[in-house]
Design goal:
With 431 residues, this protein is of the alpha/beta class. It folds into three domains: 125 residues, 3-Layer(aba) Sandwich (Rossmann fold); 248 residues, Alpha-Beta Barrel (TIM Barrel); 30 residues, no CATH class. The chain is 44% helix and 18% strand. It is built from 19 helices and 17 strands. The strands form four sheets. An eight-stranded parallel beta barrel has the order 6-9-10-11-14-15-16-17, surrounded by eight helices. It has a five-stranded parallel beta sheet with strand order 3-2-1-4-5, sandwiched between helices. Helix 13 packs parallel to helix 14. The two termini are 46 Å apart. The protein binds sulfopyruvate (SPV) and magnesium ion (MG). The site of sulfopyruvate (SPV) has 12 residues, from helix 10. The site of magnesium ion (MG) has 6 residues, from helix 10.
């Protein structure tokens, strides 16, 4: 009997999958791989069924001889083990990022005479509806809120990108890249105070009030499913912060990061060029504890951000604050720096990890941007936030377009740099 292999990356079996199985049966015995959560989230949506449930679901399909665990997007391990005569898949993998997977399979099976079978991809109204329903579920507060904790357990490092609107949210949600035979996408979104304020033409001094910041969150949530980390600035007065925690948690935000500054907050990247006051350890610990006390679920995280390195108060101060904040209940630590070199950040992480192996560490490599995600993860970092790059890339592009239209008194000269209207329209899905 010939062996036919297919890999399912889904949490619902619909007619498209059954069609693949039925086609596969014509060629031999059917082996189905179920992609693990860690592999699935690299290029697909977050699963709504557990891995065990997905395995059971596939086992129950008539005609499936055996279910295999596939723990990588690429097929190397599974093909080496099974040596299938055929690998069958929907023909949607012939284009776009999925092509990298097809290429990988082709390279692996051709040498021993294996063949690929591309079956027409089923994407009818029914399948579309099932897909949309799952995404709607993922966007619901009770599913979205806990996702950051789930990702922390699954990813070597949670890759987070700044968003400040529905459109930037869509970019965070949908951008998948194929590079060097690997697929990747962002895991989470950061609602930056700097970029949220900048998008409104306002300075980053806690001037944009919470009602307006929540409006931004809502715009993003309307069109995305990924978890949100909210930049809560200083958290404001403790008496106000407790209300913010309640609201964020109810909305389905996964985490708030508050920084240990007090008084008129200025953006950290000004460093010591402007006057900024660090809060006392005692006050800030009280704020963290008060926030933790009012929280209603175990899903939500309050992450304490330490400004000691920004304000040049030294490593010892940063570390002692980190341990105190964790003791006060912080679910994570963000350490910030405006140095070009990542050295002080990595030193902090190493020293923190000597005493605390588990509390998540968050970093924002805006200044020390040469550091890679792998290096950060190797020093114990769990979340990396690209805090302002979308805003900073859009602004010069828009400004140049405005200048050129003024210069040429028409728009033809700029057109070749613009996204075609057709692509803009397809970015935004209609119900
Ligand atoms: C933000 O994005 O608003 C931040 C990070 O707080 S930073 O601008 O680097 O201070
Ligand atoms: Mg900020």
């Amino acid at each position: 009997m010939k062996k036919v292999y297919t890999c399912f990356c889904t949490d619902v079996i619909h007619e498209g999958h059954l069609n693949i199985i039925n086609e596969a049966k014509k060629y031999g015995e059917v082996y189905v791989g179920v992609l693990t959560d860690a592999a699935m989230i690299k290029f697909n949506r977050f699963p709504v069924a557990t891995f065990e449930e997905r395995v059971e679901m596939v086992k129950a399909i008539e005609g499936v001889k055996e279910v295999l665990i596939q723990d990588e997007i690429m097929y190397d391990k599974v093909i080496e083990k099974l040596k299938p005569d055929y690998v069958i898949h929907g023909d949607n993998w012939k284009d776009g990022e999925l092509k990298a997977i097809r290429n990988n399979v082709e390279k692996l099976i051709t040498p021993y005479g294996g063949k690929i079978i591309d079956v027409p991809y089923t994407y009818n109204e029914n399948v579309k509806r099932i897909d949309a329903r799952i995404r709607e579920k993922l966007a619901m507060p009770e599913y979205r809120r806990k996702r950051l904790k789930q990702l922390l357990a699954l990813c070597p490092i949670v890759k987070t990108i700044e968003v400040h609107s529905g459109l930037t949210g869509l970019i965070a949600e949908k951008t998948i890249v194929e590079h060097d035979g690997e697929l990747d996408q962002f895991d989470a979104m950061w609602i930056s105070s700097l970029c949220d304020s900048t998008a409104k033409g306002k300075p980053d001094i806690e001037l944009v009030d919470m009602t307006s910041r929540f409006r931004t969150i809502d715009d993003v949530m309307e069109v995305t499913t990924k978890p949100i980390i909210f930049d809560g600035d200083t958290g404001g007065l403790t008496e106000h912060f407790v209300y913010t925690v309640r609201s964020l948690e109810r909305m389905g935000v996964s985490a708030v990061i508050i920084e240990d500054k007090t008084g008129l907050k200025k953006n950290s990247l000004f460093g010591t060029a402007v006057e900024q006051t660090q809060d006392t350890i005692e006050n800030f610990c009280e704020k963290i504890s008060a926030g933790k006390k009012v929280q209603l679920t175990d899903d939500f995280m309050i992450i304490a951000r330490i400004e000691s390195l920004i304000l040049e108060r030294g490593m010892e101060d940063a570390l002692s604050r980190a341990f105190a904040y964790v003791k006060a209940g912080a679910d994570g630590i963000m350490i910030h720096s405006r140095k070009k070199s990542p050295a002080e950040i990595l030193e902090f992480c190493d020293k923190f990890r000597m005493e605390d192996k588990t509390t998540p560490i968050v970093v924002v490599p805006t200044s020390f941007n040469s550091v890679t995600e792998a290096e950060l993860a190797a020093h114990g970092v769990n979340i990396v936030i690209y805090a302002n790059q979308l805003t900073r890339s859009a602004f010069p592009a828009m400004e140049q377009t405005a200048k050129d239209i003024l210069k040429y008194h028409r728009a033809q000269e700029v057109d070749s740099r613009l996204m075609p209207i057709k692509d803009i329209i397809s970015l935004i899905e209609e119900l």
